[in-house]
Write a structure and sequence with these properties.
By secondary structure, the chain is of the alpha/beta class. It has seven helices and 14 strands.
Length: about 300
């Protein structure tokens, strides 16, 4: 009887170990399997407003050894879009600037706008994996005030190419869509709320023009920022930061969002309501992972292509 119990226990242990190893292996497969997601977004603008296709990229966290991701991002330039939105956390290591230059180079031929995340300023530090799931352990991490990443070089090159820096800024621009129509965009953005660098800017000229598409950019989708975007009348807000939860449970979803939005907002397209108004919010699950937690489960890396059409 004892021998039988030992065999059963050994069998259970072997099964558990096998399942654990299979899960660990799958996290490596999944993190290297990015997908381009496509969304149709009705926007409350006049029917004469042109359709605009926006490519949303976020959270590359590039570090050496991710040349496959560099090529995947470059290949996005073959898609049909009119404007690029980047919502931060591009660096995964101090040595990543040449990789970022290569990844973004074909996309810089298109008009675009961007904001930064904390991982554009501060390089990653080794920390326990469990800290990604625990706010209490995250608060124990010492704060840093002096950036150690070459963010200024990246930003300067993007601005020189014509992209708009929306870090606590607002601006109006006009683009020519792939269909040959001229579309006006009114843009506002904030620096990373996750490290409390966000300051809502003054609204740009033309914000109240009914034929203008009003877009808001933030790295981390904190409620205070989404509430302000909604109050200002932003049509579509773009954010990243959450990694879609990164480690998700099938049928349950994200375990955490790493900010104060509920888990159901961890990724995808949502309607955000505040004060009787609403705003469409797209939260990207991002393309990368932290260097010290290079895993994804039930949450594939992603970029997104959003087609904004008059409602």
């Amino acid at each position: 009887m004892v021998g039988k119990a030992v065999k059963v226990a050994a069998g259970i242990g072997a099964t558990t170990l096998g399942a654990g190893l299979a899960t660990a292996a799958w996290t490596q497969v999944e993190r290297r399997s990015p997908v381009l997601r496509r969304f149709h977004v009705p926007v409350p603008v006049p029917p004469s407003t042109p359709t605009v296709r926006i490519l949303h990229i976020s959270d590359l966290h590039l570090f050496p050894g991710q040349e496959w991701l560099v090529q995947w991002v470059r290949d996005l330039a073959q898609e049909d879009f009119d404007f690029v939105v980047s919502t931060g956390d591009n660096f995964g290591a101090q040595a990543a600037l040449p990789m970022l230059r290569e990844a973004y180079q074909p996309l810089l031929d298109y008009p675009g706008a961007f904001v930064l995340g904390s991982n554009d300023y501060y390089s990653p530090r080794a920390k326990p994996w469990i800290s990604y799931l625990s706010k209490r352990l995250q608060k124990r991490q010492p704060k840093r005030n002096v950036p150690d990443l070459p963010w200024f070089e990246m930003v300067s090159e993007w601005i020189d190419s014509g992209w708009i820096d929306l870090s606590n800024q607002g601006e109006t621009t006009s683009i020519t869509t792939s269909s040959g129509h001229s579309a006006a965009l009114a843009l506002v953005g904030v620096d990373d709320p996750h490290i409390k660098r966000d300051r809502m800017p003054a609204l740009p000229d033309g914000w109240d023009n009914p034929e203008v598409l009003r877009l808001g950019l933030t790295h981390a989708p904190y409620q205070r920022v989404l509430n302000e975007f909604t109050t200002l009348g932003v049509h579509v807000a773009f954010a990243g930061h959450t990694h879609g939860g990164q480690l998700c449970v099938p049928g349950y979803g994200a375990l955490v969002t790493n900010c104060d939005v509920p888990r159901r907002y961890a990724k995808g397209l949502h309607q955000w309501g505040f004060g009787g108004d609403s705003c469409t919010v797209h939260i990207s699950a991002g393309l990368g992972t932290a260097m010290y937690a290079p895993v994804r489960f039930s949450c594939r890396p992603e970029a997104s292509l959003l087609t904004l059409t008059p409602a």
